[in-house]
Amino acid sequence: MFKQVTRIVVLLAVLPAATSQEAGDLPVSEEPATNDAVEKTEEAVEAPPPKAPAAPSKAPAPPAKAAPKATPPPAPPAPPVTPPVNPAVAAARRLEEDAQQQKDTLNRDFLDACRKFDATKIEDLLRQGANIDDASQSGPRWSALAEAAVHGRTDTALYLLTKKASPDVEDNRGRTPLFHAVRYNHGNVVTEMLKTAKNLGSSDGDGVDMLTRAVWQEQTAIAQALLTAGAQSAAASKAAKNSKIPEIRKMFGFSETVPAPAATPSAATPSPPSPPTLFAGA
Fold first, then answer.
1. Domain count of the chain?
2. What is the pTM of this model?
3. How far apart are CA 256 and CA 247, in angstroms?
4. Residue span of the signal peptide, if any (predicted)?
5. Is 168 in contact with 191 (CB distance < 8 Å)?
6. Structural domain includes residue 17
7. What's the angle, vertex CA 109, arms to CA 105 and CA 113, rounded to 5?
8. Which of 46, 78, 133, 206 is deepest in the core (most CB within 10 A)?
């Protein structure tokens, strides 16, 4: 439709010129207007105005680097699943713990009574269930009998032996109350302990047995009592062989006389040099 309107406008513009030419007002053109002129006019009308040159575009910005994704922290471990506790089992465990606590209290009070040699309290605590051979309440794990032997409380030790205290309870270094009685030379306590003792080879942390200890300390009566009870020790026999006590040497089967040390042969004394001879007429 736009083309038709344009054509009409062009025709209207050409028509007055043609009329004037016929009337003689204007010089007559040699060539009449043709459709080519009309088409050029239409093209001129239809052609859009020239576009302005596009502004130079800026260089594209480099793409922004994406920030590294933060690694999420590991999930905390799930709490352990606690199995349901059987009420009967829990109650039994509580009773057991309470009973153990009662025993610990009794044994601690018993050891304290022995330290004070309170015979009345000792007997009362034994009736309540205190363990006469308990060693859990002492740092070195000494029983009451061992502690009495270590500290020289012989009256307490003899009393505890009448109450059936064991001379064979080992401490944290393997030493028994009998070992301590030998070590501290309590002969009367050793004699009573040997009536019930089963362990005659008790030794300390250095491996020194009590028979060897008795020989070293020249405890003749205690060494004889241990031998009579059946104690044996190669180390004690070797020590007895070199003992200066005739009785100890004899009880181990050696001569009562200490052999004199072998004399070291001395080097021959060189003779003095002879004086020089003077020759007459020299």
1. 1
2. 0.61
3. 7
4. 1-20
5. no
6. yes
7. 170
8. 133
